[in-house]
Amino acid sequence: MSACVIAIRSDGLSAEIDPFGAQLFALRDAEGNDLLWDGDPAVWTGRAPVLFPIVGGLNGGRYRLGGQAFALPRHGFARHRLFEVAETSGDRAVFRLRWDEETLAAYPFRFELDLAFAVAGACLTMTATVRNLDPTAPMSASFGFHPALRWPLPYGQPRAAHVIVFDQEEPAPIRRIDADGLVQPARFPTPVEGRALVLRDDLFTDDALIFDKIASRRLAYGADAGPLIEVAFPDTTLLGVWTKPGADFICIEPWHGWADPAGYEGDFRDKPGVFEVEPGGERAMAMSITLRR
Fold this sequence. Notes:
Layout (H helix, E strand, L loop, with lengths): L5 E4 L3 E6 L4 E7 L32 E4 L2 E4 L12 E5 L3 E7 L2 H6 L4 E10 L2 E10 L6 E3 L1 E2 L3 E3 L12 E4 L29 E3 L10 E3 L6 E5 L5 E5 L5 E5 L6 E8 L18 E3 L4 E11 L1
Antiparallel strand pairs: 1-2, 2-3, 4-5, 6-7, 7-8, 8-9, 9-21, 10-20, 11-19, 12-19, 13-14, 13-16, 15-18, 16-17, 17-21, 18-19
């Protein structure tokens, strides 16, 4: 954690953001109840890491781009970098990461990444804007959100009562990653029944559930009684759901991009889920977390 988190507040929520990684550090309701995982180092130190310029792992830890090979750690480098505080007010803050010589050695693009956080009423909106600062050549990238919400939520209901209800029925098979963190070629029967995913630890024995044919762009998470959290993700093409079995969090992760398919040797530009930003252009992706009483 950096020396100072940035706090924003509305009449329904308060949030703290750590400039190191531009990571959502705390999210609380009007009564001060914690909605976000606390990053217990005995379990998992993450809270809501930012995934850029890749999501997931690479085959052999390296990727190929135009005949050259580059190395990146799982989920990229943004979560391990200090962002500039570009803007802050009572209910909004913007954090910015720009390319430098160190990033160029691992990711040969001149980029700018903004993470904007805004609260209004009982809604937190997080917007990532990826800019290509090169006026002559396109830029390839992936991006993902990774917020860890409390499981159970702090409203007196047991873990076993918690469920994710999707906006649409989700009959499509899901994907899984292998022991190397790469996407398996096989598809697996969805654990969603109609629109409902009843949460239980054994779903995550083999790591995340990956919805690569997701129909919904909105879901509700919570117990059968008490407040719910609505998560909206209008701009991303995949969704990961993950926890460590037995841990008190559930990660609901909108992604645009994912890990390498097992054995992938192709160019980064051709990898499924990678998007392209035109020369001098930008791409924005948002997700929102709303507390529904």
